[in-house]
């Protein structure tokens, strides 16, 4: 199967347990795919496979022709993912976290500071830049985690339920930030239970069920 992202009959099993039933799809670069479906149908598992964190038990998964594998530096350079909250340092502010990530991916400090301020502003949390992570609300923490995920270069963005903990205004804000990223040429795959976010961000929808899937535009 061709496509910038190519998934062919990928499944994940753990003993007798099916974590992800076989699924196939392809996605062009610069497009957004929403993965939807009931609880337990394998959305997070599929994202973990795409992010190279879980190998598929069957089938194949490739991004830009390369099998997904978090241990490959070339693969890691392409992929930014937020699947659960990232580890946070208690004694670093949100701005310091973002500068740390940006500079660790090659930005000069001044550029890292600009990236940090731009992202904190885009996600509406610039006034919180000097707090510590434990001084943020759960929704603010989610916005901070999203900003932190974007603080490094990437071609593909993978997000698991980015709507978590967000009020309706912040949901619109995140939808708008994500759509702009796609319009700028990034490839986005998100799992979501939010119809609003799916409608705002996605070109295609992949709906998982326990034993099959449905792909539509
Ligand atoms: N480590 C694991 N070992 C065994 N089974 C697991 C493991 N992790 C998840 N599962 C099972 O795999 C299936 C898919 O889980 P997954 O988290 O991918 O679903 P999901 O679609 O993301 O669900 P939700 O909408 O609730 O987030 C579920 O039945 C779950 O119980």
TrEMBL record:
Alphabetic keyword roster: ATP-binding, Nucleotide-binding
Molecular function (Gene Ontology), one example: ATP binding
Matching PROSITE patterns, A to Z? ABC_TRANSPORTER_2
InterPro entries, per this entry? AAA+_ATPase (IPR003593), ABC_transporter-like_ATP-bd (IPR003439), P-loop_NTPase (IPR027417)
Checking Pfam families in the record gives: ABC_tran
Q: Which residues are in the ABC transporter domain?
A: 5-217
Is Lyase one of the keywords UniProt gives this record? no
The protein's name in its UniProt record: ATP-binding cassette domain-containing protein
Q: Tell me what organism the protein belongs to.
A: Arthrobacter cryoconiti
């Amino acid at each position: 199967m061709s496509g910038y992202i190519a998934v062919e009959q990928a499944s994940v099993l753990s003993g007798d347990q099916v974590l992800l039933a076989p699924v196939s799809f392809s996605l062009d670069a610069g497009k957004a795919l929403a993965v939807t479906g009931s609880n337990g149908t394998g959305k997070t598992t599929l994202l973990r496979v795409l992010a190279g964190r879980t190998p598929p038990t069957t089938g194949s998964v490739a991004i830009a022709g390369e099998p997904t594998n978090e241990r490959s530096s070339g693969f890691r350079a392409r992929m930014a993912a937020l699947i659960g909250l990232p580890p946070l340092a208690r004694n670093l502010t949100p701005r310091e976290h973002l500068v740390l990530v940006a500079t660790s991916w090659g930005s000069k400090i001044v550029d890292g500071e600009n990236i940090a301020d731009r992202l904190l502003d885009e996600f509406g949390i610039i006034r919180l830049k000097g707090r510590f992570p434990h001084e943020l609300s759960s929704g603010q923490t989610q916005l901070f985690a999203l900003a932190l995920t974007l603080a490094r270069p990437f071609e593909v963005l993978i997000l698991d339920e980015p709507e978590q903990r967000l009020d309706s205004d912040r949901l619109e804000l995140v939808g708008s930030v994500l759509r702009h990223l796609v319009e700028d040429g990034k490839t986005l795959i998100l799992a979501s239970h939010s119809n609003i976010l799916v409608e705002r961000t996605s070109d295609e929808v992949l709906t998982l069920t326990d034993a099959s899937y449905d792909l539509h535009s």
